[in-house]
Amino acid sequence: MREAMQEAMRSDDRVFLMGEDVGRYGGCFGVSLGLLEEFGPDRVRDTPLSESAFVGAGIGAALAGLRPVVEIMTVNFSLLALDQILNNAATLLHMSGGQLPVPLVIRMTTGAGRQLAAQHSHSLEGFYAHIPGIRVLAPATIEDARHMLAPALADPDPVVIFEHGTLYNASGEPAPPNASVDLDHAAIRRPGTDISLITYGGSLPKVLAAAHLLADEGIDAEVIDLRTLRPLDGATIAASVARTHRAVVVDEAWRTGSPAAEVSARIAEESFYDLDAPVERVCSAEVPIPYARRLEEAALPQTADIVAAAHRAVD
Question: Whole-prediction pTM value?
Fold first, then answer.
């Protein structure tokens, strides 16, 4: 992700980064380490502790022709800027009759699994996926984390990128430097014929692990990584369900009103006659996320829960 920002800032003088502790400290999760030294304080700007103020400043900069990348430390803090995102960034193009595009990128950390307790463990992607006028991205792989930023900056509309905190330390093969990411389509991370496992973001490693365990039992699971939560790629979901005739939707958000609820409703509306079993959902328990490690693990979707849901659909 740091490489993506370096590339964007080196290739376009309009791109700059702003947020809490993104400069000398290098970002709360170390993503912006070294950027201040390379690009200076005009393009790597530490902001006051006021999400509404600095997201509003980012909107103004975008309206003035710049390409701001605004970092919000964790998703719960974004609620302090929800008025700016919902009532300004998402609506100005429409309310101005197409005269005021807002090419703004907002990055924020999401998700649980790091013992940060109830106030810093939210998965609120569904809040933003509900809003017309913005694009909502959830990278789950090293390649997507590296290459989603460039097309997001090129988008004339606001783009919100949700970075799951447990993925920051993920390791693997480096993303090819000249690769591109299709933000309009979900990705098939593992083809299969018996059941569709549909997920996004930080749940993808658990779903892939579940698919591996199911394969050992003779169940061939297809894994769909949604990548983009708004606009949702319903065609890829429907095509997968048409192949497998069963679906499990895995989502770290709370079950009620979650992205999993939307995906399940789409399947019911568009693929009902392809189903051989009811759609299963694996979501977080409807409680504030606990601090204690074992309680936190119990509250979150785990690989064993995904395997059990697949068995309910297949058996």
Answer: 0.96
